[in-house]
Design goal:
The structure is a single chain. This protein is α/β, with parallel strands linked by helices and 320 residues long. The chain has a single domain, classed as Luciferase-like domain (TIM Barrel), CATH 3.20.20.30. The protein has 12 helices and 12 strands. It has helices at 16-29, 53-62, 81-94, 109-115, 122-141, 182-189, 200-217, 238-245, 259-270, 277-289, 305-314, 316-319, and strands at residues 3-8, 33-36, 68-71, 74-75, 100-104, 146-149, 154-158, 171-175, 192-196, 225-234, 273-275, 294-298. Helix 7 links the parallel strand 9 (192-196) and strand 10 (225-234). Helix 6 crosses helix 7. The mean pLDDT is 96.
Length: 320
C-alpha cells in the first residue's frame, strides 16, 4: 500500500500548542510521518505566527518513537548548509534514525527581502542549491576531513563530530518536478524524491523520467523512494465537504461551480485529494497504483483536529 503522512504549512499560524497536538496525533493515530514547511512568513500578507522549523523538529524527535519527520523543504537560500547538516545529524541520532532532511533551492521572494537574505535569480538559486547539496552530503558521508571550494560555500578540512550513528546520516529528500534541473539533482544526491501537486498519470511519467536519470547516474532505480506532496480536503460527510470547499467559490476558476465540479477539477488538474472517505480512499489508491510510496498530505486547517481524527479512523485502515 502507501504510507500516509501529514504535511503542515508552518508559516500559516503554527504555534507551540498546535504543534504539540499535531505531533501527538501523528504519533498516536497511525500516520507514517509529519512534515512541515520551512519559512519565516507568507509569500503575501498577512503575517502569521511561524514556529521555527529546527526547534519544532527537535521537539518532535524527542516526543515520538515511531513517526519519521522533517522539513518539506529547508531552503539552502537561507539555511547555511554546514550548520543544517550538523543539526540534521543530531536530530537523526536523537530520534533513532527517523529524520528526513528535505532540501530545496528557495523560492519565496518576500521572506528573503524582509529578513535580509539574497534569493537571486533561478540560475543562481540552482547553482547555490547544487553546491549546498555537495556540502551537506560530503559532510554527512565522509569520515575524513572535507575540503571544498565553491562559489557560495567553502570547506577547509571540515569534519562533523560526532559522526552520525546511521551510516551516511539522515536520508536526504529533494523536492521538485523540474525534469531538467531539480530531478537530475535528486538522481545524484537524494534518498527520497518528493513530487508536488500533480495527478497520478503525470506522477507516473515523472517517475519514469527519474528512472532514466538514475540509470545515467549509475544508481539503482530503487535507491530513491518515490513520494508526493498534495493538498487534502477531507469531508467527514457531504455537508462537511461542502462547508470546506465553499471558500473556493471566491476564486474565479470555481465561481458558480457545484461542490462536485470543484472537487473534480482539483483532482484532475492538480492531483488534490478531495472528498468524503470513499472517494479519498479511491484517489489514494490511484496514487499508489502510479508508484507513489508515500503521500505527504497538506492539511491547512490547524484547528480541525476532529477532521484529522476522522481521517485516521475512516481512511488510514483502508490504505496505509
Amino acid at each position: 500500500m502507501v504510507a500516509l503522512s501529514l504535511m503542515i504549512e508552518g508559516q500559516n499560524g503554527l504555534t507551540w500548542p498546535y504543534w504539540k497536538r499535531l505531533v501527538a496525533d501523528a504519533e498516536s493515530l497511525g500516520f507514517g510521518g509529519l512534515f512541515r514547511s520551512d519559512h519565516y512568513t507568507n509569500a503575501s500578507p498577512p503575517d502569521k505566527p511561524s514556529l521555527e522549523t529546527i526547534v519544532s523538529l527537535t521537539y518532535a524527535a524527542d516526543h515520538t518513537s515511531r513517526i519519521h519527520f522533517g522539513p518539506l523543504v529547508a531552503p539552502l537560500s537561507f539555511r547555511e548548509p554546514t550548520m543544517l547538516a550538523r543539526q540534521a545529524a543530531a536530530l537523526d541520532d536523537l530520534s533513532g534514525g527517523r529524520m528526513i532532511l528535505g532540501l530545496g533551492a528557495g523560492w519565496q521572494e518576500r521572506e528573503h527581502l524582509l529578513f535580509g537574505h539574497e534569493l537571486g535569480d533561478v540560475p543562481t538559486r540552482m547553482a547555490r542549491f547544487e553546491e549546498g547539496l555537495k556540502v551537506v552530503t560530503r559532510l554527512l558521508l565522509s569520515d575524513e576531513p572535507v575540503t571544498y571550494e565553491g562559489r557560495f560555500f567553502h570547506l577547509r578540512g571540515a569534519l562533523l563530530l560526532p559522526r552520525p550513528e546511521r551510516p551516511g546520516g539522515p536520508r536526504i529528500l529533494i523536492g521538485g518536478n523540474g525534469p531538467r534541473r531539480t530531478m537530475p539533482l535528486a538522481a545524484r544526491y537524494a534518498d527520497v524524491w518528493n513530487c508536488m501537486m500533480v495527478p497520478p498519470a503525470q506522477f507516473r511519467e515523472l517517475s519514469r523520467h527519474l528512472d532514466d536519470l538514475l540509470d545515467q547516474a549509475g544508481r539503482p532505480r530503487n535507491a530513491v523512494r518515490r513520494t508526493l506532496m498534495t493538498n487534502l480536503t477531507f469531508g467527514r460527510d457531504a455537508a462537511d465537504l461542502e462547508r470546506k470547499l465553499a471558500p473556493r467559490r471566491q476564486q474565479p476558476a470555481f465561481a458558480g461551480k457545484s461542490t462536485e465540479e470543484i472537487a473534480d477539477a482539483l483532482w484532475t488538474e492538480r492531483g488534490a485529494i478531495v472528498g468524503t472517505p470513499e472517494r479519498v480512499i479511491e484517489q489514494i489508491r490511484a496514487f499508489a497504483d502510479a508508484g507513489v510510496e508515500e503521500l505527504m498530505l497538506q492539511w491547512l486547517d490547524l484547528e480541525d483536529r476532529d477532521g484529522i481524527h476522522a481521517f485516521a479512523e475512516t481512511v488510514l485502515p483502508q490504505v496505509a
